[in-house]
Rieske (2Fe-2S) domain protein (Stackebrandtia nassauensis), 390 residues
Amino acid sequence: MKHDEQVAIVKRLLALRESRRDQEMFDEVKTIPVSKYTDTALLDQELASAFTRYPLIASHTAALREPGSYVASDWDQFPYVVVRGEDGKVRGFYNQCRHRGARLLSERSGAIKNFICPFHGWVYGLNGELKGITRSQDFPCVDKSDYGLVELPVTESGGFVWISRTPDAISDIPAFMGRFHDDLESFEVANLVRYKKTKVVKNANWKLLIKTYLEGYHVPYLHRDTLATAFKRGQLAYDKDGPHIRMMAGRTNLTDITAKPEAEWRILDHVSIYYTLFPNTFFILHPDYVSVNTFWPQAPDRTIWTHEMLYRAEDFNGSSGQSALEKRFRFTNDTVFDQEDFAIAEEVQRNLLHGGSDHHVLGLSEGLLAMFQDNIDERLAIHAAQGTER
Ligand code: FES
Ligand SMILES: [Fe+2]
């Protein structure tokens, strides 16, 4: 984010603090039917559109720096592996042997020289070519060049490796991300280091989990003893680009920034910035670390949540740096997300099944939830229309 833009956003937030209101979203109360979180047919449509036709974040590049380093999918429904080749290029493959379909890599990440199938020992190079068939005399007519790993479209951009089942989807990530791609570059997201990545199954719909992040209304209540002190009078501003939403929340120390000349304003010292990247990533720039959350549906009421924490190596040195990171991770991951945000989302999900209200009602400061839902609904409608044209 260019400095001019940082200053403009801080000014927007200072003005909102004066007015004690979030930036206007919609000018009316909205409702969302609870079937959005329970309907299996709807999930199938989401999987066929949002999760098939758009780029998904496979990994931050920090886990893929060296040739042979790989990251495997967290989601059985899309069993990919991304790996950096000897030539420095990252490639994506189905994590699946061409002989009889065994999973090649069972760890979530690591480093290999070749892919070696655990079932009968076939060997593949980092570029996917089939290099060796064990007992090859038993496969007299099999041409190895016909049995390389099945490749998936992958690209590296803005510090992330993106993958899709649809080749065109990843051809232009800067265009896909619009104005927010520049933020990844100017905050040098590619240079961050991975602290930890966790994976947990939550018993709630994937959209319900993401929506817990999309308003500040709950912060003084649900996070009364945790986040609330950091966001006193933390009004929200937002920007939208295509299907993505950027949300900015002034921290309690927002007004301290005015003591400095504008040329020295650094937005992240006073503001947390949150990106809802369509479809399933929620990415947060905190003042001194970054959280990348992804959500992978398994069922309408069950979702894999991954949380990867990244940091700037020079800001956290030695063992004291590592223990500071651990403290931040426990606070954000264990307390705020898991025990507060997602615990309540799981309660909401349980309640959906037992009757009562058939819709949720969103106040004026909860408009981003409706915007996020509209983004998905619009794309489902486009793909449904394309389907009927065929
Ligand atoms: S399934 Fe991989 S070698 Fe047989
Ligand atoms: Fe929250």
In short: The pocket of FE2/S2 (inorganic) cluster (ligand 1) is lined by residues 97, 99-100, 102, 117, 119-122 (CB under 6 Å). The radius of gyration is 22 Å. Residues 56-158 form a domain with the Rieske Iron-sulfur Protein fold (CATH 2.102.10.10).
